[in-house]
């Protein structure tokens, strides 16, 4: 009986640690982390929406195209597993289920990757955000 109670306590502690590791990075209104890099984070309505779907070591597309200077709502959906994305050149991060409205003022290709260690194929989880 004592071993079962100890096991249940350890399991509960493990679940809480895993839950605390999730990303909850929701930026609003031109956050300092995005200042000066061609990205504006706003709470305003977007004219476009891009849903990035992540599953076992891949994204649903290799490239996602958006228009320069127009607000876009980025959303990350984890179809299987737990994933996050990071667009390093833009200081944009999303956790599973997160959305963020951003405006990218500089045309180009911006590579993003899964920023949560999700298994053996984690390093292959790379795609591009193409801004035209």
Concise summary:
It is built from one helix and ten strands; from the N terminus they run αββββββββββ. This is Cupredoxin domain-containing protein.
Tell how many strands the DSSP assignment holds. Answer: 10
Work out the radius of gyration: 17 Å
Helix content: 10-25%
Q: Which architecture would the CATH scheme give at its second level?
A: Sandwich
Helix count from the secondary structure assignment:
1
- Parts with pLDDT < 50 across at least 5 consecutive residues: 15-36
Looking at CATH, which topology would you report? Immunoglobulin-like
**Into how many domains do the coordinates divide?**
1
Assign the CATH superfamily.
Answer: Cupredoxins -  blue copper proteins
Strand residue content: 35-45%
Distance between the termini: 64 Å
What is the spatial order of strands in the main beta sheet?
A: 1-8-5-2-3
The global form is elongated
Report the average pLDDT across residues: 79
**H and E order:** HEEEEEEEEEE
Structural class: mainly beta
**Sheet with most strands:** 5 strands, mixed
CATH level 1 class label: Mainly Beta
Region (Disordered): 26-47
Keywords: Signal
Pfam family, one: Cupredoxin_1
Protein name: Cupredoxin domain-containing protein
């Amino acid at each position: 009986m004592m071993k079962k109670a100890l096991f249940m306590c350890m399991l509960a502690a493990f679940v809480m640690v895993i839950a605390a590791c999730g990303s909850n990075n929701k930026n609003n209104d031109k956050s300092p982390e995005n200042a000066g890099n061609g990205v504006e984070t706003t709470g305003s309505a977007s004219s476009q929406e891009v849903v990035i779907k992540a599953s076992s070591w891949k994204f649903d597309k290799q490239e996602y195209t958006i228009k320069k200077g127009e607000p876009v709502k980025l959303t990350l959906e984890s179809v299987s597993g737990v994933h996050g994305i990071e667009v390093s050149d833009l200081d944009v991060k999303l956790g599973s289920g997160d959305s963020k409205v951003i405006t990218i003022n500089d045309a180009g290709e911006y590579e993003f990757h899964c920023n949560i260690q999700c298994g053996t194929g984690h390093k292959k989880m790379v795609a591009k955000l193409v801004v035209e």
